[in-house]
Structure formats: C-alpha cells, structure tokens
Specification:
Blueprint: E1 10-11, H1 22-39, H2 42-54, E2 58-59, H3 64-81, H4 83-87, E3 91-92, E4 101-103, H5 106-110, E5 115-116, H6 118-134, E6 140-142, E7 166-170, E8 173-174, E9 180-181, H7 204-207, E10 229-230, H8 232-243, E11 248-252, H9 255-261, E12 268-269, E13 281-286
Parallel strand pairs: 4-6, 11-12
Antiparallel strand pairs: 1-2, 3-5, 7-13, 8-9, 8-10, 11-13
The structure holds zinc ion (ZN).
Zinc ion binds near residues 166, 168 and 283.
Amino acid sequence: MAEDITYTYRPIKRQLIPKMTWKGFLIHGLIFLFLTALSQIGGFIWVFTMVLWSTIRYRSKFWIPFGKISTFLFFYLLISWTIVPAISGKVPLPKSTHKTLAPFNQITVILNRHYVQPEVYDALISASESFKSEYPKSKIFYLDASFPFTNWFPIPPHVTHGNGKKVDLAFYFLNEEGNYVKAEGPSAVGYGVMEGPLPGEFDQISACNRTLYSYPDFLVPDWKKDQYSLDVPRTKAMVESLIQEASIERFFLEQHLQDRLDVQDPRFRFQGCKSVRHDDHIHVDFK
Ligand SMILES: [Zn+2]
C-alpha cells in the first residue's frame, strides 16, 4: 500500500521583484541602510540576495533565513575581495600580514573601510617603515579610512572621511604588567575610550563646556580602561614618523596629548568644540 507522503517543500512562482508587505519593506529598508552605513556595498548585496532568493523555486521555510544570510555573506566577501579592489579608484590599505602597516581590528578590512588614495597609501607605508626602524616589533595600526567608491560618501560615524585622504590611527598601550600589547587597548575597536587630560594638563573638554562629542558608553564601554595605559614613547615615535611626511596637511590630536607626547608641528589643529574628541585616536588629513 502506498504511504502518505508529506511534502515539506512548496513550489513558488519565479518573480524578479519579491512580493513584500509594508512591514517587510520597512525591515529590508532598515537592513539596507544599516549595511550601507557599515560597509557601503553591503546594502546593495542584500538587495541582490533578496532578488536572487525570490527566483529560487523550491524552498524549505526552515532553511530560508540560514540560506539568505549565507548567500549574502558569500557574495559580500567574494565581491569585497575580488571586484571591489579592482574597480575602486582608491587602494586598500594592507591586511594584517603586512610588516609595517596593518588594521587595528580585522573588521575594518571586512567592512571595506580601509580604502585611501594611492599617494596616501605610499605616505603611510613610508611613515610606518620609518617607525619600524625605531620599534622593530611594532607596526602602525590604522582604524577607519574611507569606503572604496566616490569621494563624497560619508563613512559613519565620521562625516569627513569620504575622499580617501583621511585616516585614523590607533594609539599604543601597555598592559597592567607594563608590557606592550600589539593592536590591543581599552577599546576593541580603537575608538571611544578616551585618554583624558591628567591633573595639570590642558583641559580642552572643560574649555569647550563639555560639548566635544564622544561615543556613548553603551556603544563602547570603558570597563577595560584600568587594564591599559598609554604607551607614551611608542605613540610619540609613531606621531613623529608621520610628521616627517610632507603630504600630510593636518593632524587632529587633543592638546593635552600633544603636550604629553611632547610633539610639535604647525599642522596640529583643533577640530572645534562641536566635533568628535581626538584623545582616543589620531586623525590625519592628507593634501
Ligand atoms: Zn578621523
């Protein structure tokens, strides 16, 4: 006798534009905005993934979310590693295997936030080589640079990083035993945990009536702050290697850290009271 067969797959019509409710449209719109703000190309690859999935004829409900996310990640990484560097007018900064210049956090590279103009790449390599001659076991660690496409697209939360001529660089830290720790510090992302003014140092934050912007604690908690202290000589050497580069137009580094590191250059500027604080990283603008 034939057994009853329960079909767990259901046929659907091929359709190029997925049918969507208003709620679905809103959710996918928010995902699009979020992924675009994070990685520039992520939102578009999400849309591509959704269109691709709407053409798949048979699908199990159980595997749909898993399948969509896997498809998105596959195409996101494939396109990021092959097509994007080939067609971007900018060049990606080196990956972590580079001897002198590397990302502070791998996420920066995965999110395509490490693109710069070719002359900026050359200047950073040159500065990092000169820094390495003084600290052979160290590299210069970069934070956010620019997205691969256009010169105007902001790279949230930065408003001015679009053109490939602006790069943030990480400070160096010592652990509780006083040893240098590579690409590590009180903030996992390199931003948001401030090296505020010590007693007796110039206090820009109070001078600005505390209007200087910093990341809220829920985004970057500072519970690891006590485990690290700023590696002053190493950070000073890194800043001095940058000062040698004539193609740099200006630096943003809070006055109390310029004083603490004892670095001087007419290109150190104040970013203004309504801007983000620069005592968690140094911002470099190229000509
Ligand atoms: Zn910056």
